[in-house]
Structures are given as structure tokens and as C-alpha cells.
TrEMBL record, chain A:
Source organism (scientific name): Actinacidiphila rubida
UniProt GO molecular function: nickel cation binding
Protein name per its UniProtKB record: Urease accessory protein UreD
Complexes and interactors: UreD, UreF and UreG form a complex that acts as a GTP-hydrolysis-dependent molecular chaperone, activating the urease apoprotein by helping to assemble the nickel containing metallocenter of UreC. The UreE protein probably delivers the nickel.
Gene field: ureD
Function, as annotated: Required for maturation of urease via the functional incorporation of the urease nickel metallocenter.
From TrEMBL, chain B:
Lineage of origin: Bacteria, Bacillati, Actinomycetota, Actinomycetes, Kitasatosporales
GN (gene name): ureF
Name of the protein: Urease accessory protein UreF
Superkingdom of origin organism: Bacteria
Record has Cytoplasm as a keyword: yes
UniProt similarity note: Belongs to the UreF family.
Organism of this sequence: Actinacidiphila rubida
TrEMBL record, chain C:
Keyword Cytoplasm: yes
Residues reported to bind GTP: 31-38
Protein name: Urease accessory protein UreG
Recorded family membership: Belongs to the SIMIBI class G3E GTPase family. UreG subfamily.
Family annotation (InterPro entries): CobW/HypB/UreG_nucleotide-bd, P-loop_NTPase, UreG
Lineage of producing organism: Bacteria, Bacillati, Actinomycetota, Actinomycetes, Kitasatosporales
Amino acid sequence: MSGERGAAATGDERTAGGVRTASGVTGAARIRAVPDGRGGTALPLLTGEGALAVRRTRTAPPGAAVTLVGAMSAPLGGDRLRVDVEVGAGARLTVGSAAATVALPGRERRPAAYDVRLTLAEDAVLHWLPEPVIAAAGSDLRMTMRAEVAPGALLVLREELVLGRHGEPPGRLVSRLTLTVDGRTVLDQELAAGRGAAPGWDGPAGLAGHRAAGQLLLVGAEGATLLPRVLTTRADAVQAAATPLAGAPATLVTALAPDARELRPLLIRTLHAALAPSPHPRPALATAP
Amino acid sequence: MSAALLLLADGRFPAGGHAHSGGAETAVAEGRITDAATLAEFCRGRLHTTGLVAAALAAAATAGADPLALDGAADARTPSPVLRAVSRRLGRQLLRAARAAWPSPALDRLGAARPRGAHQPVVLGVAARAAGLTPLDAARATAYEAVSSPATATVRLLALDPFESAAVLARLGPEVDAVAEAAEAAARRALSEGLDALPAASAPLLDIGAERHAAWPTRLFTS
Amino acid sequence: MHQDHPEVFPQRHTMSASGGGRRALRVGLGGPVGSGKTATVAALCRALRDEVAIGVVTNDIYTREDADFLLRQAVLAPERITAVETGACPHTAIRDDISANLEAVEDLEEQAGPLDLVLLESGGDNLTATFSKGLVDVQIFVIDVAGGDDIPRKGGPGVTTSDLLVVNKVDLAEHVGADLDRMATDAAAQRGGLPTVFTSVARGQGIEPVAAWIRERLARKAAGAA
């Protein structure tokens, strides 16, 4: 696929995987999930255009599951990717991705954009659990993730950002995560890292040498607010805290790790603890330094 | 430069700041601040993230944006409950001092609407307006506080040479000014485009460190 | 500078923000580390708690140690005791920037209901630390004989200006070679007409004159308020 990317584009031009314009490749995926009337979830809208494809995957009822497939290798400089997910009242959906998204430097010096919008109606359930985004050396990616959640809905959102492939310096990555619950913004935060980010990003107040940053956002999950707030000790490789947000039943888990491999287990453990049916979901998580 | 700005930004203005380290106590204890160079990097990271956000909130408040809406925007930009509580406590303390220094109906209204304290940058912005200061003044005072608090605390925590600490702050001066200007520009955009135009830059280790600090059985600083 | 108010002397914002109603007598207790401030506070609570509603604010150098001591001693209900963290500068928190302490007092009065007496204990500091008049109505300075019998002669703001000087641990005087008569003479010389009492609080001696002094202050305040 990357060979096709090599053909320089002038103006609009159809390629095997996407629409190449003067401003780079565009890709858009749209998913709408609604109850199917038989206790399951139907997907009346499931489209992938350009660099993004979507596949319905096998799942246990009652929910539906979709896998995002990057039909082209990655966002390059100037590319614009967009994913819209709409989960109707009472529908249940899980979205994952087939592989990590690797941001690469493009021929153009402009940043790539990756925008995700998640909309959950009342009593909708969405698990957004894609593979990591990796900012390869020289890349420049701006991501926005906006989740609009209605009362009573359940959102589980995982985001893993990895700065550089193994042993290489990181590209630039700016990721803004915004959550509204019932129309009110309860979380708005941006992480900027890599070459060209504001000074101090890797210093003792920033990432301090960590190369993987993870977030787990749990909205409407009862167990989430019962998590211990301090999840790791200062001696652990992974640094993490679970912080209940103001004004909504939502908790944000923030984690930093030396690399992606060490990040995932902590996020999974925390997720299981938060969603466990037990009234005291506190498995092997440290509580104090 | 107005004398009122000097008073508002003075570390001896009785608004409670002396008991807070801006995350420096955790960073010192965890070996991330060990000398003037690492202190400067810590301050720089704080300045360009939470410092920028706080400065923009303050500038927007001075420019006349609704303080209660800004208070909500500050909540959304502060995922750590510990840091939210700290900001509100400092806001309450600042409000007390500001009401004595620059009596104003706007400060009275804010105190009545948020008796447990509004977020500190919002109070600072409203106080700056009451003192006849500009949004850029408020941004500057707030951005400076983002670096002066850890620098002052580190003098006590590490017995760092106070001249080195002052030199760190002096060298950061141009960056503080630049952040204040960016914050003021964002605040101006927020007035016309809505509060989503305010910056939301975050520093994960400051959030994680603040939560851990609050769980320590003994500490010198409140935060 | 912009001014949309007439120039009037601002009201005392350091007073309770809620305004009106009964306000407790605020008594500051300062003094060097180890002189027995916390033990004095505990003894005062035991002596006075059946007569008046008391709250305590401690200013610990290292967070809640003193508050925890008082809680363990169970001298008051837990909601009557609170701690202020002072950022390594205990004198700042009681003198130069009293905002955290004022808030702690107001929060105590809000949580525990109307109080008659709030005891504010400073973090152990040197001889120069005194309480702001914006924070306390009267202050007690606690020194001890083991700290040296020349402290009263040396003076300093705590010794010379406190409303009551307490010289504690008199039971140790002969062990440390302290001359109590000399201390009394020096204190009288330094303090004009202000009172000095000698106690051995940990031995259960001498708290009664201190409690009586506070009772008298409470009565004076009640009379003034009436």
C-alpha cells in the first residue's frame, strides 16, 4: 500500500485506497448503531471512505462490534481522517482497530489531522478501544476526540499515544480530548509532545522521558468512581492516577509508561476493576506510595 | 506596568500561595527536580501547560467573560480532584484578599455564587478587572505565578541557592511574557467564539503527582 | 486607576465572610518547638470543654501531626479539630498571610456549629513569631525552662508583646539549672504589666491560671458584645 502512496499527487486522483487531493489523502468512516428490535444492535450506517474501511466483526449478543481498518498505511503530513460514531438510545457498540495507527512524515510539511466524534444517546453503550497511535520520527499529527454523551449512557474510551517507534525520536503529536455529558463540557484536555511541542513537554513536569501516554475515560460506569485514585507507586515503571471528573459520573485514568507494552496491562487491569460487578472492585492495584 | 499588578503578583500578597509548591514537592521527592536546571525545566513544562490554561482563564475573566462559565471551563481542564480543590481553596483565599484590596460588586457576586471558592485564575481575573488592570496584566500575573510558586518552594525544599532560583525565573521571563500574550489572544478568541477556544494543555505528571502528594502522610506543602 | 467606589475604609474582610451572628474568641498559642504548645492546648480543652464550645486549629510544620495528637488524646470531637498546612513557613501562616487560617476557623464554625472559643496553635517556630491581629483576638506565648532561662531577658516579640506568657516545664528547672526567679524578674521587666504564669502542663500543674485567664477574656468579650 505504501507504494501507492509514493505516487505524487496533483489535484484529485483516485488511488486504490483513498481519495488523494491537493491537501493529502482523506478518509472518513461513519458508523451508526441502533437497537434492532430483537434485543440486539443493528448498524444501519457502516461506511468507510478513502483511507479508512470498517468491518463488522463477530460478537456476542446483544451488542455489535466494528473494526476500523486503515486501508492505507497511515496518516501522512497533510492527510485528514475523520471517524463519526453515533450510538442510538439503547444500542451497544464496540469499536476497535485492526492495527496501530502510525503517523509518518509526509511529503507535505503540513500536519495530518485525525478527528473522531462519538455521540451517545440515552442508555447507549460504546466501548471505543482502538490500537495505539504511534508518532513516528518526523511525523506531525493533530488528533481531536470529542465524545458527547447523553445521561444514562456508558462510554469506555481508551487512547494510547506512543512517541516514536522503537528507539527513534518521536514525531509531534497533539491530542485533544473533549467530553460533554448532557451538553456540559466536563473534560477538555490536550496533550502535546514531541519535536516542536511547547518547551518542557518532556521535562519533570511533562512526560519526564516516558514514551507512552494512555488515557482511559469511563463515563457512566458506576465502578469507575470507586477506583483508588493513586494506581501506582513512584517506583513503578507506569505512573497512573484515576481522577473522578467534576459534574458528571465520569473518571479519567491517566497513565504514563516507558513504552506501549508496559502501558496496556495497567489500563486493562484498571478497566476490569472499574467495570467489575463487585461492589468493591479493587483488585491488585496499589493504593498509596 | 501598573503598581496594582505588582501588588497582585507579589508573592507576599496574602492569598495563601506560600503554602503551595505547584507540584514541586512531589517532583523533588521523586527525584525529578534536583537542581536549578531541572527546576527550570519543571517550571517551563508547567508554564506552557497549566500555566497557559490558567493565564487564559484569568485573561478571559478580566476581559469580561462570565466568571461562572469560566469556572466550569476550569473544572473541565483540571481532571485531578486534588488540583481542583487546591485551585478553589486558593481562589477563596485570593477572593478574601482581593475584596479587601479592591472592593467591587463583581468580587462580591463571585463570592456569593461560589462560597467554597471559585477557581483561582477566575478570581484573579475578576480581581484584576476590579483593580483596573488589563487582560494581559492578569495573564502575566498568572503565568508568572505558574513558575514562581515551584521556584520559591524549591528554595525551601532543596535548600537551593535563592540566587539560582531567581536566575531561573529571570531566564524564564521572555517565555512567561510569550505565554501571557498567547493566553490573552486565546481569551479574546474565547469572547467571540466561545470557551472551547481557551487552551486545554495538560501535564500528566502534574496530575498524577498531585494525587500521590495528597496521599502522603506528611508533607511540607499543601500541594 | 479605575475606581468606581468612594474611598472608604474597607470593612474588615478578615472577619467571618458570613457576617453577623456569634463569633468565637480566637486565642493564638505560639512559641518555640517543643515548649509544650500542643500539651497546653490539650490541657485547656480538658479544662474548658464542659463550660464553652471549643474548636482547635493547628498549624503543623509537617502537616497533621499536632492535630492527630489532639485527636488521639480525644480532647475534643474530631470535627472540632482541624489542621492548616503551612508550606514550611509557619510564621507566614499566622502573621503575613493568614488566609488559610481564617478559612480554617470559618470552616470549623460552619461544621461544628457556633463556637465560643477557637484555639489556634502555631507551628513551632522561633521567638519572633506572633499572630496577626487580623487572625486572633489575644495570644499566648509558650516557652519552657529547658530552652534556657535567658529567653525572657532576650525578649523578642513573642515574649514582650503576647497577652499572656506561659513558662512551661517548671518541674525541669532544677535539672537544667534554670533560675525561675530570674525568669520571672526578666519577664516582668520585658512585659510591662502583661501577665506571666509558670506551668508544668505535662505534669497536670498550672493550667488553671491559663484557663482562668481565658475565662476572663471570654467574659470580657461577652460583656463587650452585649
